[in-house]
Amino acid sequence: AKLIVNASSGRPIPETLFGIFFEEINHAGAGGIWAELVSNRGFEAGGQNTPSNIAPWSIIGDQSSLTVSTDRSSCFERNKVALRMHVLCDSEGSNICPAGGVGIYNPGFWGMNIEQGKIYKVVLYVRSLGSINVSVSLTSSDGLQILATANIVDSDVSNWTKTEVLLEAKGTNPNSRLQLTTSRKGVIWFDQVSAMPLDTYKGHGFQKELIEMLEDIKPQFIRFPGGCFVEGEWLRNAFRWKESIGPWEERPGHFGDVWMYWTDDGLGYFEFLQLSEDLGARPIWVFNNGISHRDEVDTTTVSPFVQEALDGLEFARGASDSKWGSVRAAMGHPEPFDLKYVAVGNEDCWKKNYRGNYLKFYDAIKSAYPDIKIISNCDGSSHSLDHPADYYDFHIYTSASHLFSMTHQFDHTSRSGPKAFVSEYAVTGKDAGTGSLLAALAEAGFLIGLEKNSDIVEMASYAPLFVNDNDRRWNPDAIVFNSSMHYGTPSYWVQKFFRESSGATLLDAKLQTNSSSLVASAITWTNSVDGETYLKIKIVNVGNRHVSLKVSVDGLGLNSQLSGSTKTVLTSSNVMDENSFTDPNKVVPDLSLLENADKDMNIIIAPYSLTSLD
Ligand code: AHR
Protein backbone atom coordinates (compact mmCIF):
# COMPACT_ATOMS: atom_id res chain seq x y z
CA ALA A 1 0.00 0.00 0.00
CA LYS A 2 1.09 3.54 -0.64
CA LEU A 3 0.19 6.85 1.00
CA ILE A 4 1.06 10.05 -0.85
CA VAL A 5 0.78 13.18 1.24
CA ASN A 6 1.01 16.67 -0.19
CA ALA A 7 2.25 18.87 2.64
CA SER A 8 2.19 22.07 0.62
CA SER A 9 -1.56 22.52 0.36
CA GLY A 10 -4.63 21.80 2.41
CA ARG A 11 -7.77 23.22 3.86
CA PRO A 12 -8.54 24.33 7.40
CA ILE A 13 -10.29 22.00 9.81
CA PRO A 14 -12.79 23.85 12.04
CA GLU A 15 -11.45 24.90 15.45
CA THR A 16 -14.45 23.18 16.99
CA LEU A 17 -14.08 19.73 15.48
CA PHE A 18 -13.36 17.48 18.44
CA GLY A 19 -14.91 17.96 21.85
CA ILE A 20 -16.65 15.99 24.55
CA PHE A 21 -20.19 15.12 25.54
CA PHE A 22 -20.79 14.96 29.26
CA GLU A 23 -23.97 13.30 30.44
CA GLU A 24 -25.10 12.61 34.01
CA ILE A 25 -25.27 8.87 33.33
CA ASN A 26 -23.47 5.99 35.11
CA HIS A 27 -22.94 8.33 38.11
CA ALA A 28 -20.57 10.30 35.90
CA GLY A 29 -21.26 13.51 37.78
CA ALA A 30 -22.70 12.68 41.22
CA GLY A 31 -20.14 10.22 42.59
CA GLY A 32 -17.87 11.04 39.65
CA ILE A 33 -16.41 14.28 38.38
CA TRP A 34 -18.21 16.30 41.06
CA ALA A 35 -16.00 15.92 44.14
CA GLU A 36 -18.83 15.83 46.71
CA LEU A 37 -18.29 12.73 48.83
CA VAL A 38 -21.69 12.56 50.54
CA SER A 39 -24.56 10.92 48.71
CA ASN A 40 -28.04 12.25 49.52
CA ARG A 41 -26.64 15.11 51.57
CA GLY A 42 -30.02 16.71 52.24
CA PHE A 43 -31.93 13.46 52.97
CA GLU A 44 -34.21 14.27 50.04
CA ALA A 45 -33.44 11.30 47.79
CA GLY A 46 -36.45 9.41 49.11
CA GLY A 47 -38.72 12.24 47.95
CA GLN A 48 -40.19 15.32 49.58
CA ASN A 49 -42.64 13.33 51.67
CA THR A 50 -41.81 11.97 55.08
CA PRO A 51 -40.99 9.46 56.31
CA SER A 52 -38.34 9.55 53.62
CA ASN A 53 -35.75 6.99 52.55
CA ILE A 54 -32.43 8.27 53.84
CA ALA A 55 -30.24 5.71 52.01
CA PRO A 56 -27.31 5.40 51.74
CA TRP A 57 -27.20 6.94 55.24
CA SER A 58 -27.22 4.25 57.92
CA ILE A 59 -27.60 4.22 61.68
CA ILE A 60 -24.85 3.59 64.24
CA GLY A 61 -26.42 2.15 67.40
CA ASP A 62 -29.57 0.24 68.17
CA GLN A 63 -33.16 1.10 69.12
CA SER A 64 -32.28 1.30 72.80
CA SER A 65 -29.75 4.08 72.14
CA LEU A 66 -31.35 6.16 69.39
CA THR A 67 -34.18 6.52 66.90
CA VAL A 68 -33.71 8.17 63.54
CA SER A 69 -36.48 9.61 61.40
CA THR A 70 -37.13 12.41 58.92
CA ASP A 71 -39.40 15.41 59.15
CA ARG A 72 -39.99 18.56 57.12
CA SER A 73 -38.33 21.04 59.46
CA SER A 74 -35.41 22.13 57.28
CA CYS A 75 -34.64 25.83 57.00
CA PHE A 76 -34.38 25.41 53.22
CA GLU A 77 -37.63 26.13 51.44
CA ARG A 78 -37.00 23.99 48.36
CA ASN A 79 -35.79 20.94 50.29
CA LYS A 80 -37.70 20.70 53.52
CA VAL A 81 -36.70 17.20 54.59
CA ALA A 82 -34.29 17.04 57.54
CA LEU A 83 -32.99 14.15 59.60
CA ARG A 84 -34.11 13.89 63.21
CA MET A 85 -31.97 11.90 65.60
CA HIS A 86 -33.35 11.19 69.05
CA VAL A 87 -30.49 10.02 71.24
CA LEU A 88 -31.72 7.96 74.19
CA CYS A 89 -28.37 7.08 75.72
CA ASP A 90 -25.82 9.33 77.44
CA SER A 91 -22.25 9.37 78.68
CA GLU A 92 -23.49 8.78 82.20
CA GLY A 93 -26.56 7.45 84.00
CA SER A 94 -28.60 4.31 83.43
CA ASN A 95 -28.40 4.15 79.62
CA ILE A 96 -24.72 4.59 78.72
CA CYS A 97 -23.95 5.08 75.01
CA PRO A 98 -21.72 2.48 73.36
CA ALA A 99 -18.04 3.42 73.00
CA GLY A 100 -17.64 5.84 70.09
CA GLY A 101 -21.22 7.04 70.50
CA VAL A 102 -24.29 6.62 68.33
CA GLY A 103 -25.38 8.42 65.20
CA ILE A 104 -25.39 8.09 61.44
CA TYR A 105 -22.90 7.46 58.68
CA ASN A 106 -22.76 8.00 54.95
CA PRO A 107 -20.63 5.69 52.77
CA GLY A 108 -20.71 8.14 49.87
CA PHE A 109 -20.91 6.69 46.42
CA TRP A 110 -19.72 3.13 47.00
CA GLY A 111 -17.09 4.26 49.52
CA MET A 112 -15.31 7.59 49.97
CA ASN A 113 -11.70 7.78 48.89
CA ILE A 114 -9.88 9.40 51.80
CA GLU A 115 -6.17 10.01 51.30
CA GLN A 116 -3.52 10.59 53.91
CA GLY A 117 -2.40 14.22 54.24
CA LYS A 118 -5.36 15.58 52.28
CA ILE A 119 -7.78 18.02 53.83
CA TYR A 120 -11.54 17.57 53.64
CA LYS A 121 -14.09 20.25 54.33
CA VAL A 122 -17.24 19.08 56.05
CA VAL A 123 -20.18 21.46 56.14
CA LEU A 124 -23.44 20.63 57.85
CA TYR A 125 -26.54 22.27 59.21
CA VAL A 126 -27.55 21.33 62.73
CA ARG A 127 -30.28 22.19 65.20
CA SER A 128 -31.04 21.00 68.72
CA LEU A 129 -33.06 22.11 71.70
CA GLY A 130 -30.13 21.42 74.01
CA SER A 131 -26.37 21.76 73.77
CA ILE A 132 -24.59 19.37 71.40
CA ASN A 133 -21.32 17.50 71.29
CA VAL A 134 -21.05 15.76 67.93
CA SER A 135 -18.01 14.02 66.48
CA VAL A 136 -17.54 14.44 62.75
CA SER A 137 -15.24 11.67 61.54
CA LEU A 138 -13.92 10.06 58.42
CA THR A 139 -13.50 6.37 59.13
CA SER A 140 -13.04 2.99 57.49
CA SER A 141 -16.20 1.27 56.25
CA ASP A 142 -16.62 -0.58 59.58
CA GLY A 143 -15.98 2.58 61.60
CA LEU A 144 -12.99 1.04 63.38
CA GLN A 145 -10.19 3.00 61.73
CA ILE A 146 -10.55 6.75 62.43
CA LEU A 147 -8.85 8.65 59.61
CA ALA A 148 -9.76 12.13 60.82
CA THR A 149 -12.08 13.54 63.45
CA ALA A 150 -13.25 16.83 64.96
CA ASN A 151 -15.85 17.75 67.55
CA ILE A 152 -18.69 20.21 67.19
CA VAL A 153 -19.50 21.49 70.62
CA ASP A 154 -22.18 24.13 70.81
CA SER A 155 -24.40 25.31 73.60
CA ASP A 156 -26.95 27.10 71.42
CA VAL A 157 -28.05 25.65 68.13
CA SER A 158 -31.75 26.18 68.80
CA ASN A 159 -31.94 27.74 65.31
CA TRP A 160 -30.51 25.95 62.29
CA THR A 161 -26.76 26.59 62.42
CA LYS A 162 -24.22 26.13 59.63
CA THR A 163 -21.08 24.41 60.89
CA GLU A 164 -17.84 23.85 59.05
CA VAL A 165 -14.86 21.67 59.99
CA LEU A 166 -11.62 20.88 58.20
CA LEU A 167 -10.38 17.32 58.61
CA GLU A 168 -6.85 16.25 57.71
CA ALA A 169 -6.64 12.53 56.98
CA LYS A 170 -4.10 10.53 58.97
CA GLY A 171 -4.45 7.51 56.74
CA THR A 172 -5.67 6.34 53.35
CA ASN A 173 -8.72 4.23 52.69
CA PRO A 174 -10.65 4.12 49.39
CA ASN A 175 -13.71 2.69 51.12
CA SER A 176 -14.26 5.23 53.88
CA ARG A 177 -17.38 6.80 55.34
CA LEU A 178 -18.42 10.00 57.08
CA GLN A 179 -19.81 9.59 60.61
CA LEU A 180 -21.76 11.97 62.81
CA THR A 181 -21.84 10.55 66.32
CA THR A 182 -22.61 11.65 69.84
CA SER A 183 -22.86 10.30 73.37
CA ARG A 184 -25.17 13.02 74.60
CA LYS A 185 -28.88 12.50 75.19
CA GLY A 186 -31.30 14.75 73.30
CA VAL A 187 -32.79 15.47 69.90
CA ILE A 188 -30.59 16.69 67.04
CA TRP A 189 -31.62 17.58 63.52
CA PHE A 190 -29.15 17.44 60.63
CA ASP A 191 -29.51 18.73 57.11
CA GLN A 192 -27.34 19.40 54.04
CA VAL A 193 -24.24 17.50 55.09
CA SER A 194 -21.39 17.93 52.63
CA ALA A 195 -17.82 16.60 52.58
CA MET A 196 -15.40 17.63 49.87
CA PRO A 197 -11.65 17.49 49.40
CA LEU A 198 -10.18 21.00 49.57
CA ASP A 199 -8.06 20.30 46.54
CA THR A 200 -10.32 20.25 43.48
CA TYR A 201 -9.73 21.09 39.81
CA LYS A 202 -8.94 24.83 39.69
CA GLY A 203 -10.69 25.09 43.06
CA HIS A 204 -14.09 24.71 41.45
CA GLY A 205 -15.28 21.47 42.99
CA PHE A 206 -14.32 18.98 40.29
CA GLN A 207 -12.42 15.78 40.93
CA LYS A 208 -8.90 16.57 39.76
CA GLU A 209 -7.66 13.32 38.26
CA LEU A 210 -10.78 12.76 36.19
CA ILE A 211 -10.81 16.27 34.78
CA GLU A 212 -7.11 16.02 33.96
CA MET A 213 -8.02 13.09 31.72
CA LEU A 214 -10.25 15.53 29.83
CA GLU A 215 -7.60 18.23 29.78
CA ASP A 216 -5.26 15.73 28.10
CA ILE A 217 -7.53 15.35 25.08
CA LYS A 218 -7.94 19.13 24.67
CA PRO A 219 -11.70 19.20 24.10
CA GLN A 220 -12.83 22.14 21.99
CA PHE A 221 -16.35 22.03 23.37
CA ILE A 222 -18.45 20.38 26.07
CA ARG A 223 -21.98 19.34 25.23
CA PHE A 224 -23.89 19.03 28.54
CA PRO A 225 -25.71 17.91 30.69
CA GLY A 226 -27.13 15.03 28.52
CA GLY A 227 -28.63 13.15 26.55
CA CYS A 228 -31.66 11.44 27.87
CA PHE A 229 -30.88 13.06 31.23
CA VAL A 230 -32.12 16.35 29.73
CA GLU A 231 -35.34 14.81 28.50
CA GLY A 232 -36.33 12.66 31.48
CA GLU A 233 -38.52 9.62 31.20
CA TRP A 234 -41.24 12.03 32.32
CA LEU A 235 -41.02 15.81 32.10
CA ARG A 236 -41.39 16.11 35.86
CA ASN A 237 -38.03 14.37 36.25
CA ALA A 238 -36.11 16.22 33.53
CA PHE A 239 -33.05 18.31 34.40
CA ARG A 240 -34.17 21.88 35.11
CA TRP A 241 -31.37 24.41 35.18
CA LYS A 242 -33.11 26.79 37.60
CA GLU A 243 -33.25 24.05 40.23
CA SER A 244 -29.51 23.51 39.89
CA ILE A 245 -28.14 26.99 40.58
CA GLY A 246 -27.58 29.19 43.61
CA PRO A 247 -26.19 28.04 46.97
CA TRP A 248 -25.79 24.27 46.96
CA GLU A 249 -27.71 23.92 50.22
CA GLU A 250 -30.80 25.38 48.62
CA ARG A 251 -30.89 23.14 45.57
CA PRO A 252 -33.70 20.62 45.74
CA GLY A 253 -31.91 17.84 43.81
CA HIS A 254 -33.85 15.51 41.56
CA PHE A 255 -34.34 11.91 40.59
CA GLY A 256 -33.13 11.27 37.04
CA ASP A 257 -35.67 8.69 35.94
CA VAL A 258 -33.89 7.64 32.73
CA TRP A 259 -30.66 6.52 34.38
CA MET A 260 -32.53 5.88 37.61
CA TYR A 261 -30.63 7.70 40.30
CA TRP A 262 -30.85 10.70 42.54
CA THR A 263 -28.59 13.73 42.11
CA ASP A 264 -28.20 16.45 44.72
CA ASP A 265 -27.42 18.76 41.75
CA GLY A 266 -24.28 20.19 43.31
CA LEU A 267 -23.08 19.80 39.73
CA GLY A 268 -25.50 22.21 38.13
CA TYR A 269 -25.78 24.55 35.17
CA PHE A 270 -23.31 27.07 36.62
CA GLU A 271 -20.73 24.36 37.34
CA PHE A 272 -20.95 23.04 33.77
CA LEU A 273 -20.33 26.54 32.42
CA GLN A 274 -17.44 26.95 34.86
CA LEU A 275 -15.92 23.63 33.81
CA SER A 276 -16.14 24.62 30.14
CA GLU A 277 -14.32 27.83 30.93
CA ASP A 278 -11.69 26.05 33.03
CA LEU A 279 -11.00 23.59 30.22
CA GLY A 280 -10.98 26.29 27.54
CA ALA A 281 -13.83 24.44 25.83
CA ARG A 282 -16.92 26.02 24.29
CA PRO A 283 -20.06 25.24 26.29
CA ILE A 284 -22.90 23.62 24.34
CA TRP A 285 -26.03 23.67 26.42
CA VAL A 286 -28.69 21.08 25.66
CA PHE A 287 -32.00 22.19 27.17
CA ASN A 288 -35.33 20.52 27.57
CA ASN A 289 -37.76 21.59 24.85
CA GLY A 290 -40.96 20.50 26.57
CA ILE A 291 -40.49 16.90 25.47
CA SER A 292 -39.50 13.88 27.54
CA HIS A 293 -39.45 10.20 26.62
CA ARG A 294 -43.08 9.76 27.61
CA ASP A 295 -44.83 13.11 27.63
CA GLU A 296 -44.80 16.28 25.58
CA VAL A 297 -45.93 19.83 26.02
CA ASP A 298 -48.06 21.04 23.18
CA THR A 299 -46.64 23.84 21.03
CA THR A 300 -49.52 26.07 22.06
CA THR A 301 -48.40 25.87 25.70
CA VAL A 302 -44.62 25.63 25.31
CA SER A 303 -43.89 29.32 25.93
CA PRO A 304 -42.90 28.84 29.63
CA PHE A 305 -40.23 26.41 28.43
CA VAL A 306 -39.05 28.96 25.89
CA GLN A 307 -38.85 31.56 28.64
CA GLU A 308 -36.93 29.12 30.81
CA ALA A 309 -34.35 28.72 28.01
CA LEU A 310 -34.11 32.49 27.51
CA ASP A 311 -33.62 32.94 31.25
CA GLY A 312 -30.87 30.32 31.09
CA LEU A 313 -29.14 32.31 28.37
CA GLU A 314 -29.44 35.45 30.44
CA PHE A 315 -27.99 33.59 33.40
CA ALA A 316 -24.97 32.59 31.30
CA ARG A 317 -24.51 35.76 29.25
CA GLY A 318 -26.49 38.59 30.80
CA ALA A 319 -24.97 41.62 32.47
CA SER A 320 -24.23 41.17 36.14
CA ASP A 321 -27.09 43.51 36.99
CA SER A 322 -29.65 41.69 34.86
CA LYS A 323 -32.21 39.49 36.62
CA TRP A 324 -30.49 36.17 35.95
CA GLY A 325 -27.00 37.54 35.31
CA SER A 326 -27.03 38.88 38.85
CA VAL A 327 -27.64 35.35 40.17
CA ARG A 328 -24.57 34.20 38.24
CA ALA A 329 -22.59 37.14 39.63
CA ALA A 330 -23.68 36.25 43.16
CA MET A 331 -22.29 32.78 42.53
CA GLY A 332 -18.87 34.31 41.93
CA HIS A 333 -18.81 34.88 38.16
CA PRO A 334 -19.69 38.49 37.32
CA GLU A 335 -18.29 38.15 33.80
CA PRO A 336 -20.59 36.45 31.32
CA PHE A 337 -19.79 32.91 30.22
CA ASP A 338 -18.96 32.43 26.56
CA LEU A 339 -22.10 30.45 25.68
CA LYS A 340 -22.68 30.45 21.93
CA TYR A 341 -24.27 27.08 21.17
CA VAL A 342 -27.51 25.54 22.31
CA ALA A 343 -29.27 22.33 21.34
CA VAL A 344 -33.05 22.28 21.37
CA GLY A 345 -33.73 18.94 23.04
CA ASN A 346 -32.13 15.56 22.52
CA GLU A 347 -33.15 12.85 20.03
CA ASP A 348 -36.64 14.31 19.78
CA CYS A 349 -36.95 14.91 16.03
CA TRP A 350 -39.51 12.15 15.58
CA LYS A 351 -41.77 13.40 18.40
CA LYS A 352 -45.16 14.90 17.58
CA ASN A 353 -44.46 18.44 18.83
CA TYR A 354 -40.77 18.69 17.98
CA ARG A 355 -40.93 20.95 14.95
CA GLY A 356 -43.57 23.21 16.44
CA ASN A 357 -41.74 23.56 19.73
CA TYR A 358 -38.36 23.88 18.03
CA LEU A 359 -39.49 26.85 15.95
CA LYS A 360 -40.73 28.67 19.04
CA PHE A 361 -37.31 28.26 20.67
CA TYR A 362 -35.48 29.08 17.44
CA ASP A 363 -37.36 32.33 16.81
CA ALA A 364 -37.14 33.54 20.41
CA ILE A 365 -33.43 32.77 20.77
CA LYS A 366 -32.41 34.18 17.39
CA SER A 367 -34.29 37.35 18.11
CA ALA A 368 -32.72 37.85 21.57
CA TYR A 369 -29.26 36.42 20.78
CA PRO A 370 -28.64 36.48 17.01
CA ASP A 371 -25.10 35.13 17.43
CA ILE A 372 -26.16 31.94 19.19
CA LYS A 373 -25.87 28.82 17.05
CA ILE A 374 -28.86 26.53 17.30
CA ILE A 375 -28.67 22.77 16.96
CA SER A 376 -31.65 20.79 15.73
CA ASN A 377 -32.26 17.15 16.68
CA CYS A 378 -33.24 16.30 13.09
CA ASP A 379 -30.65 14.63 10.89
CA GLY A 380 -29.88 16.78 7.87
CA SER A 381 -27.23 14.48 6.37
CA SER A 382 -29.51 12.50 4.07
CA HIS A 383 -32.09 15.16 3.21
CA SER A 384 -32.53 18.87 3.79
CA LEU A 385 -34.10 20.00 7.03
CA ASP A 386 -37.60 21.46 6.84
CA HIS A 387 -36.71 24.08 9.46
CA PRO A 388 -33.92 26.59 10.01
CA ALA A 389 -30.87 25.50 12.04
CA ASP A 390 -27.15 26.20 12.27
CA TYR A 391 -26.32 22.56 13.04
CA TYR A 392 -28.07 19.23 13.10
CA ASP A 393 -27.39 16.43 15.56
CA PHE A 394 -26.19 13.10 14.23
CA HIS A 395 -26.06 10.14 16.66
CA ILE A 396 -24.71 6.71 15.85
CA TYR A 397 -24.22 3.64 18.05
CA THR A 398 -23.46 0.58 15.97
CA SER A 399 -21.16 -2.39 15.25
CA ALA A 400 -17.46 -2.02 14.52
CA SER A 401 -17.68 -2.94 10.85
CA HIS A 402 -20.58 -0.56 10.30
CA LEU A 403 -18.95 2.40 12.05
CA PHE A 404 -15.68 1.79 10.23
CA SER A 405 -17.53 1.79 6.90
CA MET A 406 -19.13 5.07 7.94
CA THR A 407 -15.79 6.73 7.34
CA HIS A 408 -17.57 7.66 4.08
CA GLN A 409 -20.86 8.67 5.73
CA PHE A 410 -20.56 12.36 4.94
CA ASP A 411 -18.74 12.08 1.59
CA HIS A 412 -21.93 12.72 -0.36
CA THR A 413 -23.80 14.95 2.06
CA SER A 414 -24.94 18.25 0.63
CA ARG A 415 -22.34 20.96 1.23
CA SER A 416 -24.96 23.65 1.68
CA GLY A 417 -27.30 24.14 4.61
CA PRO A 418 -26.64 23.49 8.30
CA LYS A 419 -23.44 21.80 9.44
CA ALA A 420 -23.33 18.41 11.09
CA PHE A 421 -22.70 17.91 14.80
CA VAL A 422 -21.93 14.23 15.42
CA SER A 423 -22.76 14.71 19.06
CA GLU A 424 -22.86 11.03 20.03
CA TYR A 425 -21.04 8.14 18.41
CA ALA A 426 -19.53 4.85 19.57
CA VAL A 427 -19.25 1.19 18.75
CA THR A 428 -21.60 -0.71 21.06
CA GLY A 429 -22.72 -4.29 21.57
CA LYS A 430 -20.56 -7.38 21.40
CA ASP A 431 -17.84 -5.72 19.31
CA ALA A 432 -17.30 -3.25 22.11
CA GLY A 433 -17.87 -5.15 25.37
CA THR A 434 -16.91 -2.66 28.03
CA GLY A 435 -14.33 -0.98 25.80
CA SER A 436 -12.40 -3.08 23.26
CA LEU A 437 -9.55 -2.23 20.94
CA LEU A 438 -11.78 -3.24 18.02
CA ALA A 439 -14.38 -0.63 18.95
CA ALA A 440 -11.70 2.03 19.32
CA LEU A 441 -10.18 1.29 15.90
CA ALA A 442 -13.54 1.46 14.15
CA GLU A 443 -14.13 4.81 15.86
CA ALA A 444 -10.71 6.01 14.69
CA GLY A 445 -11.65 5.07 11.11
CA PHE A 446 -14.92 6.98 11.48
CA LEU A 447 -13.10 10.02 12.88
CA ILE A 448 -10.69 10.06 9.95
CA GLY A 449 -13.78 10.27 7.75
CA LEU A 450 -15.02 13.19 9.84
CA GLU A 451 -11.70 14.99 9.50
CA LYS A 452 -11.92 14.60 5.74
CA ASN A 453 -15.50 15.86 5.74
CA SER A 454 -14.88 18.64 8.20
CA ASP A 455 -16.04 21.19 5.67
CA ILE A 456 -19.54 19.94 6.57
CA VAL A 457 -18.98 18.18 9.93
CA GLU A 458 -17.93 20.85 12.39
CA MET A 459 -18.20 19.04 15.71
CA ALA A 460 -18.00 15.49 17.03
CA SER A 461 -18.04 13.90 20.48
CA TYR A 462 -17.83 10.31 21.72
CA ALA A 463 -20.51 9.03 24.11
CA PRO A 464 -20.79 8.33 26.94
CA LEU A 465 -17.72 9.90 28.49
CA PHE A 466 -17.60 8.43 32.01
CA VAL A 467 -18.75 5.41 33.94
CA ASN A 468 -18.57 4.76 37.64
CA ASP A 469 -17.85 1.03 37.61
CA ASN A 470 -20.41 0.55 40.39
CA ASP A 471 -23.29 1.77 38.23
CA ARG A 472 -22.82 0.69 34.64
CA ARG A 473 -25.95 1.90 32.92
CA TRP A 474 -24.29 2.04 29.51
CA ASN A 475 -21.39 0.23 27.87
CA PRO A 476 -18.83 1.10 26.72
CA ASP A 477 -17.61 4.47 27.99
CA ALA A 478 -14.42 6.45 27.49
CA ILE A 479 -13.24 6.73 31.10
CA VAL A 480 -13.88 4.18 33.84
CA PHE A 481 -13.50 5.00 37.53
CA ASN A 482 -14.38 3.99 41.05
CA SER A 483 -13.74 5.89 44.27
CA SER A 484 -9.94 5.81 43.93
CA MET A 485 -8.93 4.46 40.50
CA HIS A 486 -9.54 5.37 36.89
CA TYR A 487 -8.40 4.40 33.41
CA GLY A 488 -9.12 5.23 29.81
CA THR A 489 -10.67 2.62 27.54
CA PRO A 490 -9.03 2.25 24.10
CA SER A 491 -11.75 4.62 22.81
CA TYR A 492 -10.43 7.27 25.19
CA TRP A 493 -6.91 6.82 23.84
CA VAL A 494 -8.17 7.21 20.27
CA GLN A 495 -9.40 10.67 21.25
CA LYS A 496 -5.84 11.61 22.11
CA PHE A 497 -4.70 10.88 18.55
CA PHE A 498 -7.16 13.49 17.31
CA ARG A 499 -6.48 16.27 19.81
CA GLU A 500 -4.33 18.26 17.36
CA SER A 501 -6.89 18.05 14.56
CA SER A 502 -9.22 20.88 15.60
CA GLY A 503 -8.01 24.03 13.86
CA ALA A 504 -5.33 22.11 11.95
CA THR A 505 -4.85 21.96 8.18
CA LEU A 506 -6.12 18.86 6.44
CA LEU A 507 -3.65 17.78 3.78
CA ASP A 508 -4.34 15.95 0.61
CA ALA A 509 -3.48 12.31 1.47
CA LYS A 510 -4.04 9.65 -1.19
CA LEU A 511 -4.06 6.06 -0.02
CA GLN A 512 -3.41 3.53 -2.78
CA THR A 513 -4.43 0.08 -1.63
CA ASN A 514 -6.78 -2.71 -2.51
CA SER A 515 -7.44 -3.38 1.16
CA SER A 516 -10.70 -2.14 2.64
CA SER A 517 -9.17 -2.36 6.13
CA LEU A 518 -7.01 0.75 5.87
CA VAL A 519 -7.81 4.44 6.14
CA ALA A 520 -5.44 7.35 6.62
CA SER A 521 -5.31 11.11 6.91
CA ALA A 522 -2.64 13.76 7.27
CA ILE A 523 -2.67 17.16 8.92
CA THR A 524 -0.32 19.94 9.79
CA TRP A 525 -0.92 21.74 13.06
CA THR A 526 0.80 24.55 14.89
CA ASN A 527 1.95 24.01 18.43
CA SER A 528 1.03 27.06 20.51
CA VAL A 529 3.89 26.37 22.93
CA ASP A 530 6.83 26.47 20.48
CA GLY A 531 5.06 28.07 17.52
CA GLU A 532 6.30 25.29 15.23
CA THR A 533 4.21 23.52 12.63
CA TYR A 534 4.05 19.74 12.84
CA LEU A 535 3.01 17.08 10.38
CA LYS A 536 0.83 14.24 11.66
CA ILE A 537 -0.16 11.20 9.63
CA LYS A 538 -2.70 8.77 11.06
CA ILE A 539 -3.33 5.29 9.72
CA VAL A 540 -5.98 2.86 10.93
CA ASN A 541 -5.67 -0.83 10.10
CA VAL A 542 -8.67 -2.96 11.08
CA GLY A 543 -7.25 -5.96 9.22
CA ASN A 544 -5.52 -8.91 10.87
CA ARG A 545 -2.29 -8.61 8.84
CA HIS A 546 0.77 -6.43 8.86
CA VAL A 547 0.76 -3.90 6.06
CA SER A 548 3.88 -2.61 4.43
CA LEU A 549 3.09 1.04 3.72
CA LYS A 550 5.19 3.31 1.52
CA VAL A 551 4.71 6.86 2.74
CA SER A 552 5.75 9.77 0.50
CA VAL A 553 5.48 13.31 1.73
CA ASP A 554 5.72 15.89 -1.04
CA GLY A 555 6.04 19.61 -0.60
CA LEU A 556 7.90 19.69 2.72
CA GLY A 557 9.53 23.09 3.32
CA LEU A 558 13.30 23.42 3.05
CA ASN A 559 13.64 23.90 6.80
CA SER A 560 11.70 20.77 7.62
CA GLN A 561 13.27 18.66 10.28
CA LEU A 562 12.70 14.94 10.27
CA SER A 563 14.99 13.93 13.10
CA GLY A 564 13.04 13.51 16.31
CA SER A 565 9.97 12.26 14.43
CA THR A 566 7.95 9.75 16.38
CA LYS A 567 5.62 6.87 15.81
CA THR A 568 2.75 6.22 18.22
CA VAL A 569 0.83 2.97 17.98
CA LEU A 570 -2.35 1.84 19.71
CA THR A 571 -2.65 -1.93 19.39
CA SER A 572 -2.70 -5.14 21.42
CA SER A 573 -2.21 -8.86 20.97
CA ASN A 574 -5.96 -9.47 20.78
CA VAL A 575 -8.37 -7.12 19.08
CA MET A 576 -10.94 -7.69 21.85
CA ASP A 577 -8.49 -6.65 24.56
CA GLU A 578 -9.75 -4.12 27.08
CA ASN A 579 -8.19 -2.13 29.90
CA SER A 580 -9.26 -2.74 33.49
CA PHE A 581 -8.47 -1.61 37.03
CA THR A 582 -6.02 -4.50 37.31
CA ASP A 583 -4.48 -3.85 33.90
CA PRO A 584 -5.20 -0.20 33.05
CA ASN A 585 -2.36 0.05 30.51
CA LYS A 586 -3.01 -3.05 28.48
CA VAL A 587 -4.16 -1.05 25.45
CA VAL A 588 -2.51 2.36 25.51
CA PRO A 589 -0.53 4.30 22.92
CA ASP A 590 3.10 3.26 22.59
CA LEU A 591 5.49 6.05 21.57
CA SER A 592 8.84 5.39 19.88
CA LEU A 593 11.34 7.27 17.73
CA LEU A 594 10.67 6.97 14.01
CA GLU A 595 14.20 5.89 13.07
CA ASN A 596 13.79 5.94 9.29
CA ALA A 597 11.86 9.23 9.09
CA ASP A 598 12.22 10.55 5.57
CA LYS A 599 10.06 12.10 2.92
CA ASP A 600 9.93 8.64 1.39
CA MET A 601 9.79 5.88 3.93
CA ASN A 602 8.51 2.40 4.44
CA ILE A 603 6.41 1.80 7.54
CA ILE A 604 5.17 -1.53 8.80
CA ILE A 605 1.64 -1.06 10.08
CA ALA A 606 0.65 -3.56 12.77
CA PRO A 607 -2.54 -5.60 12.45
CA TYR A 608 -5.47 -4.05 14.33
CA SER A 609 -3.78 -0.76 15.03
CA LEU A 610 -3.98 2.99 14.97
CA THR A 611 -0.63 4.55 14.07
CA SER A 612 0.39 8.15 14.19
CA LEU A 613 3.57 9.43 12.53
CA ASP A 614 4.50 12.83 13.95
O1 AHR B 1 -25.12 8.29 25.43
C1 AHR B 1 -26.16 7.56 26.01
C2 AHR B 1 -27.53 7.94 25.48
O2 AHR B 1 -27.62 7.59 24.13
C3 AHR B 1 -27.86 9.40 25.50
O3 AHR B 1 -28.44 9.79 26.69
C4 AHR B 1 -28.88 9.54 24.41
O4 AHR B 1 -28.83 10.80 23.80
C5 AHR B 1 -28.57 8.41 23.47
O5 AHR B 1 -29.69 7.67 23.19
UniProtKB/TrEMBL annotation:
It is found in: Secreted, Extracellular space, Extracellular matrix. It catalyses: Hydrolysis of terminal non-reducing alpha-L-arabinofuranoside residues in alpha-L-arabinosides. SMART domains: Alpha-L-AF_C. Coiled coil: none annotated. Its EC number is 3.2.1.55. This is non-reducing end alpha-L-arabinofuranosidase. GO terms for molecular function: alpha-L-arabinofuranosidase activity. The lineage of its organism: Eukaryota, Viridiplantae, Streptophyta, Embryophyta, Tracheophyta. InterPro entries: Alpha-L-AF_C, ASD1_cat, GH, Glyco_hydro_b, Glycosyl_Hydrolase_51. One of its GO terms (biological process) is L-arabinose metabolic process.
